[in-house]
Amino acid sequence: MKAELIINEHLNEDEVKIHTKTATSGARILSYIDHFTTDRENLIIRSDDEFLMIQKLDVICAEVQDKTLTIYTKNDQIVTSKSLRGLMEEMNSENFLKVSKSEMLNIQMINRVEPSFSGNIIARMKNGKKVSISRRYVSKLKERLGI
After folding, report:
1. What is the DSSP string of 91-119?
2. Is 87 helix (H, G, I), strand (E, B) or coil?
3. What's the pLDDT tens digit per position in 82-128?
4. CA distance linking residue 25 with residue 63, whole number of Å
5. Cα dihedral: 60, 138, 88, 50 (round 10)
6. Which of 33, 92, 130, 133 is most enclosed, with most CB atoms within 10 A?
């Protein structure tokens, strides 16, 4: 790979152009950039009567059941009344992907993916949790993973 930095003081704002031979390479580069610019931020979650601060990188996946959101991290399960949509907006990262009506995951925390019945995929996360990716989101996951 060849990289070049060109400084142009006449630009109104920073601009980055990436030229790649394949879409997969481009997606990986954008993922790296996103990782180093946004994923180091903390996330504040209200759980019961306390506020918890967790790093976005520690979030493995999240699911909604009966209007209760459970966020799975490397070391904990956090239960909150936050909506899945609200969590996705706060994550604001290419690493997090909604994979069904009620679940999202961190693609960096996927250990492996397996085909399931009726076109779904099962993602086995690094913490051992299985996350079902509905048919509607399979193509988006494959695109993000470059497969």
Report:
1. H-STTEEE-SSSEEEEGGGEEEEEE-GGG
2. helix
3. 999 999 988 877 889 999 999 999 999 999 999 887 888 999 999 99
4. 30
5. -40
6. 133
